[in-house]
Structures are given as structure tokens and as C-alpha cells.
Amino acid sequence: MELNSFQIVAEAARKTNELEFLTETYRNAIEALGIRIGTFRAVLEQSLATLYYDYTQEQKKAVRIWKDTIETLARFKEEELMGMVRMRASISLLDIRSEELWMRALAPDMLKSTLKT
User: Domain of 43?
Assistant: First the structure.
């Protein structure tokens, strides 16, 4: 598996117990951009959602960000990268739903323990 720069930084933060610092940095960067909707903000939000889902196990926060991204970007004329970010959020939500269905079918008791707030 080839890692991208985001995954390398997130993995380093996990290994050094600095995930809280990294998520706070992403939140601050997003806040600094204000209410402006733009490609850079959308990419930062998707990275923050991935941190929540894959690294801090705060899946509900990630799902909220992905849903907000889909709803927000649907209101704007989509340029190519914004469309890709929207698609990435949609795929992330689809992956979660697929995983939940498999868990229900194969191991219903495990589902409750894997979904944390």
C-alpha cells in the first residue's frame, strides 16, 4: 500500500500520541478560512474527517463532515476538484454503510463495539 503525505503525517501523529494536536491544527486551519467555500477548505475538511474516522475513532464526527460536504457542495457550481471532493465524501459514507451491512450480516455483536462516538 502506497501512503500519501496525509497518511504519513497522520500515522506519525498517531505513533507519537499527537493526534489531538493534528486534529486541532486542521480545525484551526479550517476556521481561519472562515465561511468561504472553496477547494482548499473542502480538502482540509475531508482530511479532518479521515482523521476522525480512521485515526481517532470518532466516526460520528467524520460522518457529519462528509454529509455536510455533500450538502454544501451540491448547492454550488462544481468545478472539477470540488466534484472530486464531493465524490470522495460520498464514497466514504458508502464505505461505512457497506461495512455496517457486512458487520450486521457476519457479526452483529461486533457492530456495537466498533462504532464509537
Answer: 5-114
